[in-house]
Design a protein that fits this description.
Blueprint (H helix, E strand, L loop, with lengths): L1 H13 L1 H6 L3 H15 L1 H8 L12 E6 L2 E6 L6 E6 L6 H10 L8 E6 L10 E4 L1 H11 L6 H23 L21 H20 L7 E8 L2 E12 L2 E10 L2 E8 L9 H12 L13 E2 L5 E3 L3 E7 L5 H15 L3 E2 H5 L3
Parallel strand pairs: 3-4, 4-5
Antiparallel strand pairs: 1-2, 2-3, 6-7, 7-8, 7-13, 8-9, 9-12, 10-12, 11-12
Helix pairs in contact: 1-7, 3-4, 4-6, 6-7
Amino acid sequence: MDDEVARAARSIEANPLGRLMHGQRELFHSNLIAWFFDALPEAADAVFRPFMVDGDVASRSIERERSHLDLVVRLPGRSPLVVENKVFALPDAVQLRRYEDAVARWSTPPAFVLLAASTPDFALGRWTHIDYRELAAAIEAALPSGSSYEVETMRRYAALARDVQSLVDAVAVRSEGESVWLAPRVLDVIGSRQTRAALHKARATHVARHLRALDLGDRWRIRADMTRGTPLVEAFARVVDDGLDVRLGWQLQGSQLRRAVIFDEPIARGRDEGAKDVRTSLSRAHPSWFALPPEFDAVGSSEFNHYAPDFVYRYAKAPALTVADLAGFASWVSQRVAPLESRRSASGPS
């Protein structure tokens, strides 16, 4: 994985369009594709026309950010085409349904294309998915011969799109034997701090997706994030224990593997010392909330670590965790939380 990431990263960094992409990923691709329609209309039409159906559009137009839609393409005699692009982020089913609702009143129903480097893990319905490698191939096939500025720009863009796809393919989880996180050195070649962070977060989102496939249960909320420049994946379940409304679970942030509780009881929430004392007392009375498998030893200078206003944890150092290790840990925690009553049944929907 690391070698593939480094190879694609070097190629992107050597491409001037790759430098322009840094920090403006989805915006950059949408703007460049809109420029493609203006600069090389016949080639652009050839790339996107196959996704359209017959319609009554009278004139050609390209719109950016209409009703929060990335691109809306209109060609004479065809239906409108809505294009949503995702570079490092995973496709979002709720977002796509929201876009469908936004165009529901259009006089001519549009077709929908999801341009995304990651394959959706949900039913697409009216959307057609293409990845950036497929886009690159379609652009190259449609470009006229010659070496004009416009043609060369789109050739370079096609190369960039292919490298972006290779990069995202490499950060996806393909084997449970892989390390959970990317080695920092493999992204050092990328000059953009924002792009490095986006790739680390992309890896976290793919790890979270892999864990969701374990089917730990509906009450587990598994999510990924970047905090303080470090990737994070976590899982929490809303439960009732000893009459207390809490969220029990775990986090992996960098090399810190945490067992944690989030308090939803008003008496335990707050930034003052009184609320902290309540959290500490309740945590001390429930050691099972912080239990770790025997292969992990809890560390830390204090009994518990706190993030006000509601978060308490203990942690172990796990610098070489594989995806399989994390999946095993997630299952281990899930089994120990399973006997507790779900908040959903105890207190209504969470």
